[in-house]
Each structure stands twice: as C-alpha cells, then as structure tokens.
C-alpha cells in the first residue's frame, strides 16, 4: 500500500516541503519533497507530537 502524503500547509511553491503520511499501524512518516521516496523518517505519534511541540516552542522564540 502506497502512503497518502500530505504537504505541509506552511509550504510555499518551492521544492523543499515537508510531507507526512500515516500507516495502518499508526506510524507517522515524514519526508522532504526533494527526495520523497528515499529519505523517509518514521515516528510514533508521541514522538511526532513532541517534535511539533519543540518546533512550535522554538518558533515562538524567533
């Protein structure tokens, strides 16, 4: 089964966009549009939530 990738809403029309997809087991996959089939990071929902939390915290301090 091929994952259904969703592009980040913060992505402009450029080539460097983050895409996410979920698996039937709940794993979250992340990839970058420049290399979508070769560099896929897998994360648990808890790890993905922690990543988003840290990113939002860091953006708040910019």
How are the SSEs ordered, and which strands pair?
Blueprint: E1 6-7, E2 18-22, E3 28-32, E4 41-43, H1 45-60
Antiparallel strand pairs: 1-2, 2-3, 3-4
Structure write-up:
The structure is a single chain. This protein has a four-stranded antiparallel β-sheet with strand order 1-2-3-4. The mean pLDDT is 84. Helices cover 26% and strands 24% of the residues. The chain has 62 residues and is an alpha+beta fold. It has one helix at 45-60; strands at 6-7, 18-22, 28-32, 41-43. A hairpin with a 5-residue loop joins strand 2 and strand 3. The longest helix is centred in the last third of the chain and has 16 residues, at 45-60.
Annotation keywords:
four-stranded antiparallel sheet, alpha+beta, about 60 residues
Largest beta-sheet characterization: 4 strands, antiparallel
Helical element count? 1
Helix content: 25-40%
According to DSSP, the number of beta strands is 4
Q: Low-confidence runs (pLDDT<50, min 5 residues)?
A: none
Shape: flat
How far is the N terminus from the C terminus? 40 Å
Compute the CA-based radius of gyration.
Answer: 12 Å
Spatial ordering of strands, largest sheet: 1-2-3-4
Helix vs. strand class: alpha+beta
Q: Mean of the pLDDT scores?
A: 84
Q: Give the DSSP E fraction (strand runs of 2 or more residues).
A: 15-25%
Order of SSEs? EEEEH
